[in-house]
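Review form for a predicted model. The reviewer records the input and the model, then writes brief findings.
Reviewer: anonymous (R2)
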Amino acid sequence: MKLHSLGIDFRHDKDFLIDRPNGSGDNLIIIFKTTAVVRQNGIVQTAPAGSAVVYSKGERQYYGAAGAEYINDWVHFECDERDTFFDRIRMPFNTVMPVSAGGTEDILNMLGLEQVSGGENSGECVDLLLRLLLTKLGGAGGSPRGNSRSAALRTLRAEIYRNPADCKSIAELSSRLALSPSYFQNLYKKEFGVSCYEDVLAARLERAKYYLADTALSVRSIAELCGFENDTHFIRQFRRRTGMTATQFRGRSRHRQD
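Model under review:
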């Protein structure tokens, strides 16, 4: 895939409208930051903020402001639409779809840097970043669970695995989504097939394994860093889940490194 041009947070007034009957001569990604109007299947309709369209080459491009202000991100690029990659990610071309929570702007910024870097592998990096961006878009649009609550749950799960020690309780986690603890737990289990408690525990144990294998921190310090109530609770849970003590795990990890 080749990048032609891109823009991030482009702002226009209420009269902004793009209408290209034969497209732009390449493929186009539009990510709406504000409510917009689009033409889809011959009908002009509203696209909510936080949605996107990936236009095929030659497809009519019709989109614009639906309110006092219009903001979007855009990427003009070239690809082979027959690539099986698009089937694998279930890309719904020319269709308004939700945007997965988090990550798209980071990818766009990296694309912009690679575009001007001129590095030896910049073309390969651009290809990979475009595929990552399209995978995020296709995954959200192709999934029957691609809605705002599902996206919020996925974001929360990523936070759990990034900072497991910050997850104090189910009540605290559910409050982040403005849900009751019982309803939150039902939604979480339905979304991921595992309870939130089990996910938090798994995240803490994975972090603990890293500290045991790669640092000289005491077991008590590791238990505290990973969010366990105390080292006794940590030791009990670690042995129950791994079949060995924390000390045994540390010894085996260091033996493998040697």
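Findings: The two ends are 43 Å apart (CA to CA).
Further findings: DSSP finds ten helices and nine strands in the chain.
Recommendation: see findings above.
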